[in-house]
Design goal:
The protein is α/β, with parallel strands linked by helices. 22% of the residues lie in helices and 11% in strands. A 9-stranded mixed β-sheet has the order 1-2-3-5-7-8-9-10-11, covered by helices on one side. Bound molecules: 2-acetamido-2-deoxy-beta-D-glucopyranose (NAG) (2 copies).
Length: 283
């Protein structure tokens, strides 16, 4: 009975709400898909969901992302944002979104770019251990509570680019990509071992900050962006090991140090373990 009510009343209403939202967006975002196409896409998606709900096959469990019992909790976020099988898209939400919305259980991908989120609290992602990717690019985040990310054991990609961070939070061990470009990070806000335990880290983006030194870079890193910081020197232990001439750092194949005060030609022995020279000032 409850499911029938949901299907007959809530779903058409949800479809209409989404349609309205995409009509608005298509006018607001230059170059976005025409409203009708998106309407078609989302209403088709909902229609097929409705069809599945109307005739639940006896031998197949209903895998729709909004279980009846949870509908009351999940609907507000999924009306404000767009929820599609494990992904939540909350981009440029209006009215202004200043905190992380309550996420549906089992969210794997969260895109909350270009909002006005100021602070991340430990409870924001508390029990959503299914998260694999979080993109918070272009918010106003200046504070992140301890433990906000540390329990997210499946998290692989995290972007905090274009925010107002002066220090970094504890990062979870499985990260492969971390982006904090365009923040206000100084070396004292980046703990010496901030990246040390991230043994799967491949991309590390820390460009356009105010770092004074190169942080400890895990062996696994392939792409390192540190351009446009305030790095004044590099030494033999920054990338290589001064006490071992046999040491090779083979993974690292793109290092950007341009836009820093350091003159790299002053440190001829600092890059001997690497396959490529960093980009940057040599004169
Ligand atoms: C860069 O570092 C120097 C000290 O090495 C400091 O005087 C200067 O204010 C720093 N610049 C910025 C933009 O942080
Ligand atoms: C080389 O230096 C590292 C620290 O930079 C140290 O852990 C290691 O034990 C040193 N090895 C030798 C042979 O001195």
């Amino acid at each position: 009975m409850k499911a029938l009510l949901f299907t007959c009343i809530l779903v058409p209403w949800l479809t209409a709400a989404l349609a309205r939202r995409f009509d608005q967006n298509s006018q607001l975002i230059p170059g976005s898909l025409p409203g009708r196409e998106l309407n078609g896409y989302f209403s088709d998606n909902l229609k097929s969901k409705r069809a599945r709900r109307a005739l639940p096959p006896a031998d197949e469990p209903d895998e729709s992302p909004i279980p009846d019992g949870a509908a009351a909790i999940d609907l507000p976020t999924c009306l404000l944002c767009v929820c599609l099988s494990g992904s939540v898209y909350c981009e440029e939400v209006s009215p202004d979104m200043t905190t992380v919305p309550t996420l549906p259980k089992e969210t794997a991908y969260l895109y909350a770019r270009f909002n006005k989120i100021k602070k991340l609290a430990a409870k924001d992602f508390g029990d959503i251990v299914t998260l694999k990717r979080i993109d918070l690019t272009g918010n106003m985040i200046s504070e992140i509570e301890d433990g906000t990310f540390s329990k997210l054991t499946m998290l692989e990609e995290l972007s905090l680019a274009e925010n107002r961070l002066v220090k970094l939070p504890m990062l979870p061990a499985k990260l492969t990509s971390f982006n904090a470009n365009h923040n206000l990070l100084k070396t004292k806000g980046v703990k010496a071992n901030a990246f040390k335990k991230l043994t799967k880290l491949v991309n590390l983006f820390l460009a356009n900050n105010q770092l004074e030194a190169v942080p400890h870079i895990p062996e696994s890193v392939r792409i390192l962006h540190l351009q446009n910081n305030n790095i004044t020197d590099v030494n033999k232990d920054t990338f290589c090991k001064s006490n071992s001439t046999y040491y090779l750092r083979l993974s690292l194949n793109e290092v950007r140090l341009d836009g820093n005060p350091a003159v790299l030609s002053k440190y001829p022995d600092s890059f001997t373990c690497m396959k490529v020279l960093p980009s940057g000032r040599y004169r």
